[in-house]
Amino acid sequence: LEAARELAANAVLPLQRLRALSALALLAELDGDGAGARILREERLTLAEREYPLPGYLAELQLDLAASALAAGDHDALREHANAARSLAEEHGDLEALLRSYRYLVASYYRDNDMDAAVQLALAARPILDRVDSAEAEGFFLQFATLALNLRGRFEEARDYTAALRTLGEHTANPMFGAIADLTVMHRRYVQGDYKAARALAAGTRQRLEADNGFHAAIPTALSFEAIAAARGAPVAEATTVIESLEQRYGNVEALRAPVLRARGHLLARSGSKDRGLALLREAEAAYRAAGARSVADYTGYEIAELRLKTESTPPWDDLERLSAGDTFDYKLAMLQARAYAREDNHLAATAALEEARLRGNDLWSERDQLLLERYRSVLAMADAGGAETAGTLAGDR
What's residue 214's pLDDT? Predict the structure, then answer.
């Protein structure tokens, strides 16, 4: 460390100083000083742009800054650096750097709950996937790309990317990629509301990781997925056991605080303690937001609104309106808005919300959703014909 500091301050050759700045940035990052690492990397980029303006090298430096910005939750800076890296990589013909830039962009838009942008980039990178010989770049791109595709109901493409993850695991003999593939399927089942299948997949992944001494660091992630899915669909006693196991083994891991709160909240609500459950779910949402995971925070917010819509006499417009304050579409939110409008007999707005969900939800749109849309359309037709009383009866279970 002292040698690197001395070299950074007094190096005669720019290349020596660049190497020293790289070492200091890495040391700062390992020491938990993300802001300091970012400053050092910015200084390194400025020096390189002046002394060694080689497209491939500059792309790598931009990607390092994108990684620093992602860790800091600074999506604007991340996109600036990742897009700069993408332009440089295209100029240099560096497909690995190009895929890494896509990886950071998709991760950023996914975490920021802009799934339209995430999906667009996830599909734009598809032509270069088979041409990149980097398991790290390909694997982590596929992870975030598949999660975004799941949330947009693009299940065919998501299955293709999951299969690519499994192939990557086989070719590299690295079980981590297989575990990531399993978790993307679990995520897909959860988004579809099949909590029993999601829990079984997460449990199987966790058990395989426990049997492999090299991948214990990934167990908390699998167990947190298992706990949340169990809280939604497993018998209460079983779900309690899974959640307690997560708390006992990893209760001191700050990153797992939000998943534990979310699982506990759902379980309490299912067990008849709705108010206590809602309080924990709100804590979980706040914890996700504090960690910069807006997409998961918003989804937890949708689950809060869904619970209230099922159990309260008036629609939870306070939650629905704050969650729809942005300009991004979400299928689950649109469906909740439709049900809330219908409860107030505003079937025109309810139908409009369902129509948007039908047009943009892709494979998330189900036969049951289509039947609900037909019911709302019938109510509107009856109302237009002057049969308000009949329309109200036809609306039935809103």
Answer: 64
